[in-house]
Design a protein that fits this description.
heterodimer; A: about 240 residues; seven-stranded mixed beta sheet; 7 helices; B: about 200 residues
């Protein structure tokens, strides 16, 4: 599992992905942690197959007992089907996930972890002194989804938005935006059902100060590529499956 | 899922299937008892010896139905335990893998407690499963006992039927149906016992 520190300040952000031992027939996904002095928030913990390499990778940054919070942007198995395993490994943790999906996500196994439902209009999660804004991203793939914005690190974990499917071992940051566009086009047109929802999200996100846009699949965007992505997404017609 | 776990799931699931067939047959015995009672009543003195047998048959059928109902509840609990054991074992195996993959990680040692905890719970589940299987086998033995008793009653019924003059055929048919039902119950329950016996407490 590749680990890339993407923010280092009073707290840290680390991106995990490109697991070389992943079975070929499951999609690669990005996981993130927000590490504070005594706590660790795991964003998009991943699928069951990914649990062992992911947990082993996190142990380079935090002990098990300090993994206190999990976040799932939506209900899909590549985001959170490992929950039943985290549930047995963590003795004192909370899962922040959409209220709408609670009954669904619990199918993955959630007995000891406390499910903290996120209301439709989002909320703020506090991990020690770090305040993270939970931004609604409904109908941007899932009918109910959320993204995580860290105003200090200026990182937006954008779930499915910005995702692309890459060859194994691809770099973690977009280097040539014009080339990368073709890796994202079909995914966004097919997975995102609503131009109206897309526009509402872009209007909201344009007001945020973002250095890194960090999706759940594929490469992250940094610097000017963030604006390039928003402009490209803005002009893209989505919902092409019908 | 390994082959032993698969067999365990199949064994537990097959109990419910076999027992639902037993339940149908037990209800048939109950019906045969009611039928026999009516025939014996019409036959009067000619079937005097048959009359108390019909009560035995009916009682036996009722007890079998009650036993099977209880076993079905127990089998469902055993199924849930099997699912839980599967989940616990899967978690333990993954945790062990984490331990191997995390060699050299700064906080690798912190995984030791979850591994130990998972192992303990997994072993508790395995022990509980064996205990429950042993108990279930005991309950299945009680059903077998009823099936054997039903066959004895069927044999007595034949003897009594032979004294019943023109009612001989009707009463023999009752005896045959009880005997056949007893055979079916015996065979089905025996299959349950064979499927489970490898998991019992030694």
């Amino acid at each position: 599992m590749k680990m890339t520190k993407i923010y280092e300040g009073a707290h840290q952000w680390v991106m995990f992905g490109r697991d070389e031992n992943k079975p070929d027939n499951i999609i690669d996904s990005n996981q993130y942690i927000v590490r504070t002095a005594n706590k660790c928030l795991l964003l998009e913990p991943g699928g069951t197959e990914l649990f062992a390499p992911m947990m082993a990778a996190v142990l380079h940054h935090a002990p098990v007992e300090q993994i206190t919070d999990l976040f799932a942007s939506h209900q899909d198995p590549d985001v959170i089907s490992s929950l039943g395993l985290w549930d047995q490994a963590l003795s004192n943790a909370k899962l922040h996930a959409p209220a709408l999906w609670e009954g669904y996500i619990r199918h993955f196994g959630c007995e000891s972890i406390e499910y903290v439902p996120i209301p439709d209009n989002g909320e703020t999660i506090k991990i020690e002194s770090v305040e993270l804004q939970i931004i609604p991203a409904h109908y941007l793939h899932s009918p109910c989804g959320f993204h995580v914005y860290d105003p200090v690190a200026k990182i937006l974990m954008s779930g499915s938005v910005g995702s692309a499917f890459e060859a194994a071992g691809a770099p973690v940051f977009v280097d040539r935006f014009d080339v990368h566009v073709e890796k994202m086009r079909y995914y966004h047109q097919r997975m995102m059902p609503s131009n109206q929802a897309k526009r509402a999200w872009i209007d909201k996100v344009r007001n945020l100060d973002i250095d890194i846009l960090a999706p759940q699949h594929g490469r992250m965007f940094k610097g000017d590529d963030v604006k390039r992505f928003l402009d490209w997404f803005d002009s893209l017609q989505v919902g092409t499956g019908v | 899922m390994n082959s032993q776990t698969k067999s365990q799931f199949i064994a537990v699931a097959s109990i419910t299937s076999e027992l639902s067939a037993v339940m149908v047959v037990a209800k048939e015995i109950s019906l045969a008892a009611a039928n026999a009672k009516a025939i014996a009543f019409r036959a009067g003195d000619k079937a005097k010896g048959f009359q108390p047998i019909t009560d035995f048959i009916n009682e036996l059928a009722k007890e079998t139905i009650e036993l099977v109902t209880n076993i079905n509840v127990y089998a469902l609990l055993l199924y849930r335990l099997t699912v839980n054991e599967y989940r616990r074992t899967a978690a333990y195996n993954r945790f062990e893998l984490v331990g191997k993959l995390a060699v050299g990680a700064q906080y690798a040692d912190s995984m030791q407690e979850p591994i130990t905890h998972a192992r303990t719970i997994m072993q508790d589940c395995q022990r509980q499963f064996k205990r429950d299987v042993t108990q279930l086998l005991g309950q299945l033995e009680a059903v077998m006992h009823h099936a054997r008793a039903a066959r004895v009653i069927a044999a007595n019924s034949r003897i009594e039927a032979s004294q019943a003059g023109e009612y001989l055929q009707s009463l023999q048919a009752v005896a045959e149906s009880v005997d056949k039902a007893a055979h079916t119950i015996h065979d089905n329950v025996q299959r349950c016992r064979i499927a489970l016996s490898i998991y019992r407490n030694s």
